[in-house]
Amino acid sequence: MHDVLTVSGLYKTYASGHDALKNINLSIRRGEIFALLGPNGAGKTTLISIVCGIVNPSQGSVRVDGHDIVRDYRAARALIGLVPQELTTDAFESVWGSVSFSRGLFGRPPDPAHIEKVLKALSLWEKKDSKIITLSGGMKRRLLIAKALSHEPQILFLDEPTAGVDVNLRRDMWQLVRALRDTGVTIILTTHYIDEAEEMADRIGIIRKGEIILVEDKAELMRKLGRKQLTLQLQQHLKMLPPALDAYRLELSDDGSELTYTYDAQVDRSGIATLLKDLGDAGIAFKDLHTTQSSLEDIFVNLVRGGQ
Hints:
308 residues, alpha/beta, Rossmann fold, Alpha-Beta Plaits, elongated, AAA+_ATPase, ATP binding, membrane, cell membrane
């Protein structure tokens, strides 16, 4: 798949001496949903701001569909839509006027049909003539998304787009994101709602202290770093496990009432049946069992803490 965004050897050091980004190398594929995850202060917004031409890099390059973000700024920036975290809008402008003006800023000719389509998709059509100052916080968030889509960008950045908004907006926005992706638009999002990344993203990137520590297809990441656990509640407490079961690396609870078996669901599908047979052969009976699976949030927390 063709890369639509390429970041190479990117550094950002502020005047205070703070290294916000350190040697970022990242390629984003056309038409994918890419989730960039990281704790506060990790460098997510700085990276987005550099790609969008808001902040200058200290070193390195960014190319948007072949256009250098510094040398060919106008062409590169015209391909990008940005939904920022902050609710900054022209309070006394109308919704229609604000979105139409945003389109004109990028040199695009008037297209009322496109503006209407965007406003309807975001449930803003009935508010098209309303002054922005009269809108609720959720409606203002919808407006920021509409403004970002006004010039028909090929790459859409969503920087914490659903922070503090209602469930309806989250649902509407993710429906819109899927529809945009289906038309070939590339979506890059940062979010604190890791369940959103788990549901929506094709690939996951994790940034920590200004460095990209992992980029992986979501399914592959879940397969490689996710794990399943089978917990068995024993009929009789055990003081220790028989040596015949050492190969399973079972964990015995402190009170001897539970056994936990951790396994890779993709590889060890037949391992459970064998384990249960070997437990029976060892005279160990259980009265109940249940399984749990690690989520993307578990994986994220473990990686950010420095674990594997």
